[in-house]
Amino acid sequence: MSAASEVLVRRLQNMQTLILNRPAKLNSLNRNMVNIMASKLQVFEDSPVTKSILLTSGENSRAFCAGGDIKALLKGNSGNPDDVAEAVGFMQNEYQLNHHIGTHKKPIIALMNGITMGGGVGLSVHAPFRIATENTILSMPETAIGLFPDVGGSFFLPRLDGELGTYLGLTGHRLVGMEVFMAGIATHFVPSERLPALLERLAGLETEELETVNAAIEEYVAEPPVADDWNKWSLGGDVAAAINRCFSRDSLGEIVEALEAEQSAWASDTLNTLKQMSPTSLIVTLAQLRRGRQEDFESCFRMEYRMVQDVLQGKDFREGVTSVLINKAQTPPSWSPSWDEALTSPALSPLALESQYFEKRLTFPPPLAKIQPRLSLANSLTYFDYPHRTLSGLPTDRDVQRVLNISKSRAEALDMIVRNWGTYANEMIGHESKYLPKVPSLSEGNRTPKIGLVEKVESILARVTDKSKL
Q1: Average pLDDT estimate for 172-185
Q2: What is the pLDDT of residues 23-63, one digit of tens each?
Q3: Which of 68, 114, 169, 320 is catalytic?
Q4: Helices (H), 164-251
Q5: Which one from 6, 83, 94, 150 is the annotated catalytic residue?
Q6: Coil, helix or strand for 176?
Q7: CA-based, 20 to 30 A from 305: which of 97, 151, 275, 446?
Q8: 48 class by beta-carbon count within 10 Å (0-12 exposed, 13-18 middle, 19+ buried)
Q9: From the centroid of its chain, how far is CA 172?
């Protein structure tokens, strides 16, 4: 296959389509694919005939995108400045693309009809419209190979319900089908048999208005989960409560202790899963996610660019990729430090983490001599929360609690959210983070509630224990 054919570009009436076309590799990303998409997004942004952009995979492909071509990044573990520069350069290009997808002027629709992992999540999760189907399998499995959930994971994971993002980022848990919507990662769930009609509808739209695109997608979605479904799905109800109890801790040791105290089958399985991961990656990831919760969109990518420079050269990255991806885990990875050592290792103390992974570099060691010192981006736009979330997404438990705090009753809170949800929060996005709000204002919503909105809010309100709000 030629390099040019790894991403196909097709125009469908008013919609430009970028088709990932590397099926034998489950559409895993290489630098050529990233650069093709980045250059096309620049062209589409200024094109008057382009009203929307679709990111998708080829017909009959099992994957939307299974991630980055991680094996190719192993050269960056050699210590050779040229190899390191090539590996870090790929990550830089990927982060640039991810950021541009999240700040693009045109509506971007990501169709995750198949395996969507790691870099594939980065291609989709920042777009204003993210469509899951019954074929979608999504995860962030980086801690299993000595990496961390990058591609903007530091931004989107902490903004999911409760501590769900922390749990997903540390364990690499797989979400399937409707679960991707219920987790808040997909904005819509559309049965795959409806996709041809949906794409024809989107291609015919003659506007760039996000509200119109959202309404068009809503015409094809499946029946939403009812309130009871939100409590009974695999990560809802009692499991969600346990996730919040255990993964709200700020150290890996405390999370382990909390899981041991749960004394449940779920907690035992979760602990066994964690102990297969690189403990260094888990500790670094937890620090990353706690920082990301407070950072703006642009700053999260800059933080990840700083982190990846060291992580790609780490012992656990080579060990994880070799064991899990090359040898297919014929023997368990031998992590360094081991689990027994990691929880008390001075090299993984908060101060040591700050110095090695997060602190701004004043000088660059020899292996990093040829990398680009600063992450360059397509634009300087940023935000503290997705401005499109209040249009295409569903409220989180934090949104509901914020409204409940100023309401007299649960019924009033539900009414306020229904009336004030469903528009693009334009005030959230800008060029200087210090002038931007941290949360959307929730005012002047769409008169037609988003499908699934009432059911999810009702399920959250049902868990509220404040008797004064009855």
Answers
A1: 98
A2: 999 999 999 999 999 999 999 999 999 999 999 999 889 99
A3: 68
A4: 164-171, 178-182, 195-203, 210-218, 227-232, 237-247
A5: 150
A6: strand
A7: 275
A8: exposed
A9: 12
pLDDT of residue 330: 77
Q: Does the annotation count 68 as an active-site position?
A: yes
Distance CA 278, CA 289 (A): 16
Q: CB neighbours of 290 closer than 8 A, spacing ≥ 6? A: 158, 250
User: Residues of 183-208 as b/e, b for ≥16 C-beta within 10 angstroms?
Assistant: bbbbbbbbeeeebeebbeebbebeee
Q: Radius of gyration of the chain from Cα atoms?
A: 22
Query: Which residue in 94, 142, 161, 163 is the catalytic one?
Result: 142
> Annotated catalytic residue: which of 76, 102, 114, 119?
119
What pLDDT is recorded for position 468? 54
Q: How confident is the model at residue 465 (pLDDT cuts 50, 70, 90)?
A: low
The pTM of the full predicted model, rounded to 2 decimals, is 0.97
Give 341-357 pLDDT, tens digit per residue. Answer: 999 999 999 999 999 99
Closest by CA to 90, choosing from 58, 64, 67, 124, is: 67
CA 441 → CA 76, 399, 452, distances in Å? Answer: 44, 10, 21
Q: In DSSP terms, which residues pair with 196 in a beta bridge?
A: none
Instruction: Judge whether 407 and 469 are in contact, CB under 8 Å.
Output: yes
